[in-house]
Design brief:
239 residues, globular, two-stranded antiparallel sheet, alpha+beta
């Protein structure tokens, strides 16, 4: 006969508590072991560890103990999904019958570009770009502007981006994400004299002026995708 000790798993603190002892046969023991091996760890939020739980350290698609990326340390909760921005864009920015012929052509061109093979990218790769073209995408309308002045500059604190037009300014920092993607965290303002930064840099709960996106490279093209509300996006193409 074999003595089995029953345990209760405490999901909040990740430890086991002994409950009682039971005698069983070796055949029963084999069945118990088989069941234990089939169990998937569950975190305190009720989701499988490493499978997308965003409420418990060690979950969210990475193993316990993994170090957060620099941008994740300061990103607001709503921006933590930015690393999936390419998939999100291709899924949500779909052709719509309400779009005019020009809008459909612009969207088709951008989708084809974004769907290309990923290429490695570093923040310093952006330093030579001086112009950017913005495309505003919503389910019912697509607007593409002319190229405007922009600037990437390297400082002791990293690479920073600045875009200015007659009506809108955007500034922020470029972070490394993976070998094939970068993350931009910044803010938008309408007056160049007003100082404004990404809210997560200072812990400001007001995210009204935040602007965040993912930067990728496809062939020789550098693209920033900035997700908005209600399946809307802003896409930057750099020149």
């Amino acid at each position: 006969m074999i003595i089995i000790v029953h345990f209760h798993y405490n999901a909040n603190n990740h430890f086991f508590l002994p409950l009682k002892e039971t005698l069983c046969s070796s055949i029963t023991m084999k069945k118990i072991i088989a069941l234990l091996l089939a169990v998937t760890p569950i975190c305190s939020a009720g989701e499988e560890v490493g499978e997308g739980c965003s409420q418990h350290e060690g979950c969210g698609g990475h193993e316990a103990g993994d170090k957060k990326k620099e941008w994740q340390e300061v990103a607001q909760p709503a921006d933590l999904a930015l690393e999936h921005g390419v998939i999100d864009f291709l899924k949500k920015a779909q052709p719509n019958e309400e779009l005019d012929t020009k809008g459909k052509a612009i969207l088709e061109s951008l989708r084809k570009l974004v769907s290309g093979a990923p290429i490695n990218i570093k923040p310093t790769d952006l330093l030579n770009f001086k112009q950017v073209r913005s495309t505003q995408i919503s389910p019912l309308k697509i607007t593409q502007s002319e190229y405007a002045d922009c600037l990437f500059k390297k400082t002791k604190r990293g690479v920073f981006f600045e875009k200015s037009t007659e009506s809108k300014f955007k500034t922020g920092k470029v972070f490394e994400d993976s070998e094939q993607s970068l993350i931009f965290l910044g803010a938008t303002k309408t007056n160049q004299k007003v100082y404004r930064n990404y809210s997560g840099f200072t812990g400001n709960p007001n995210t009204k002026h935040d602007s965040a996106g993912i930067i990728i490279k496809r062939e020789k093209n550098y693209i920033m995708i900035l997700p908005g509300k209600n399946k809307s996006f802003e896409v930057y193409e750099f020149l």
